[in-house]
Amino acid sequence: xxxVVCVKxxxxxxxxxxxxxxxxxxxxxxxxxxxxxLDEYAVEEALKIVEAGEGEVTVLTVGPASAADAIKKSLxxxxxxxxxxxxxxxxxxxxxxxxxxxxxxxxxxxxETPVDLxxxxxxxxxxxxxxxxxxxxxxxxxxxVTLASELEVDGGSATIRRDGDTSTQSITATLPALVSxxxxxxxxxxxxxxxxxxxxxxxxxxxxxADLGVDASQxxxxxxxxxxxAFTARPxxxxxxxxxxxxxxxxxxxxxxxxxxxx
Amino acid sequence: xAEVLVLVDHVEGKVRKTTAELLTIARRLGEPSAVFVGAGxxxxxxxxxKYGAEKIYHVEGDVLxxxxxxxxxxxxxxxxxxxxxxxxxxxxxxxxxxxxRLAVKTESGxxxxxxDVQAGEGGGVATTQSVFAGGYTVxxxxxxxxxxxxxxxNSATPEEVSxxxxxxxxxxxxxxxxxxxxxASSKPKEVSGRPELSEAAIVVSGGRGTAGDFSxxxxxxxxxxxxxxxSRAAVDAGWYPHASQVGQTGKQVxxxxxxxxxxxxxxxxxxxxxxxxxxxxxxxxxEAPIFELVDFGVVGDLFAVLPQATExxxxxxx
Lengths: 263, 318
Ligand SMILES: Cc1cc2nc3c(=O)[nH]c(=O)nc-3n(C[C@H](O)[C@H](O)[C@H](O)COP(=O)(O)OP(=O)(O)OC[C@H]3O[C@@H](n4cnc5c(N)ncnc54)[C@H](O)[C@@H]3O)c2cc1C
Ligand SMILES: Nc1ncnc2c1ncn2[C@@H]1O[C@H](COP(=O)(O)O)[C@@H](O)[C@H]1O
Fold this sequence. Notes:
Chain A is an alpha/beta fold. Chain A is built from 7 helices and 16 strands. In chain A, α2 packs across α5 and α3 packs across α4 (132-140). In chain B, the strands form 3 sheets. A 9-stranded mixed sheet of chain B has the order 9-8-7-10-6-1-4-5-11, with helices on both faces. Chain B has a 5-stranded parallel sheet with strand order 14-13-15-16-17. Chain B has a two-stranded antiparallel ribbon with strand order 2-3. The chains are: A alpha/beta, B alpha/beta.
């Protein structure tokens, strides 16, 4: 089983995230970053599949030099090799362009050894659009099973469980396929000391747009099909009234609800 | 006036409130045309007309057996034949996938999770989104192709205005390419009888502080006619279904009132409720971060505070 996991390097959600006011893109330079937590679930699931059988896990990221950290963490967890697509022209790319670059990189990886499974997180923790996986499947012409809270791969198919609003579904796709996973699917491992040491020797390839045959005019801010016109910080919520329950907390709560016409 | 395509969200012909909202928004941009896929068309027709659908494109057959791909193909076909001013899709996981595929297929700009959509000044669309866990508001526009926008629930107040609802059956066949993934089985969930979480005007959520007993949270919610939500800690413990999880990896809700009971207010939880109009918390710990957000807070034990509030509310209602 040859698996490619797409991992994204994102600004830390615990830090103050903001925008770069020169071009209204996410500020990635001044905020500490890390491997998107939600992609750890995809790495973990890929490792489990390969450990139960055979094969290789390749982690793929599209991002600036600092995004190497996302690959490093994945390799420490146990992935076999990394591919880092880094090109100045990519800065400011939207999901459309990102999915194009990822798709071309996966085609290039697949040209060496066919890819059976492409795995992703459910959404990045910064943009949180959750659309790159589907776009990727569309571009690669792969069937997609998304938001898996359970995954079983056998023979020529992948079957997932998906927890929807009105039903729980079992969905099957023929391989090769794309699978996105939720944070319900597993408990990602922490890198072990051995894993950290081993990661240092694992191969990481660096590709530019030219290596992928993608023209610089197809990516980046200027090629984006949407434009952020403005951003404003939401005014901080001013703290309202806090009461200590001295036996009448419930009554006070009901009174507040009455005053504000919720009852 | 150009058409605006609205993908109808329905269960067996019972049209969801979000569709009425989308039809209302569509009228700001052009002439609303509903796109109806699946069973129950006759039941749906009247409610679509009531909210101003001038046309209804409709397809029957096995379209829904194959997840979202056929719906994206259908919309792409309609975009080509009608050159709409925009395509509006509900911001559900399925809706976002349909929109994502449609954007690639039609080479069009995509905006997800809009909380407001207006006609742009120089034409086009002007959207508003809430990003970074509700920390920022972003206005954006589509610069290429047909604007494709997924719209969150509660982004508009549905306005009734009668539309002609001219029925147009679309000639459409699911491509072989779309058949690579299939729903093998589907188990319907129990219905709680409470309002739908993402559409509700009031949401009452319970967290680890409930220690697994949601009864007081539910009784309080019922006194307010509210939907019940849960933190991930409560969901992971198996106390409440995952579909009720509020937060980054659950539902993002934006009700008139959100009440957090026994929830600390982690950033991932905030990401799902921070844009609520009024926020209330009940928590034993006066240093819980949730109190930073509240309009009203009670420092106390939810097992004492909630039943007392429930009783007072039920008494007031008489
Ligand atoms: C990738 C990722 C995604 C996540 N996504 C989500 C998400 O979508 N939604 C989400 O909610 N979380 C999410 N989390 C988890 C989040 O970080 C917190 O762990 C979680 O929200 C904590 O839930 P809690 O507030 O119920 O529990 P706790 O943080 O343990 O808080 C319980 C609170 O209850 C109070 N309490 C205890 N007993 C009582 C009582 N009798 N009466 C009143 N108060 C009481 C305590 O004082 C405490 O403040 C995510 C985490 C990660 C890493
Ligand atoms: N720049 C990127 N590099 C690698 N993977 C990505 C990138 N952007 C998005 N992804 C993948 O797509 C998923 C969803 O991202 P998004 O659509 O941005 O929310 C992530 O969890 C990743 O698996």
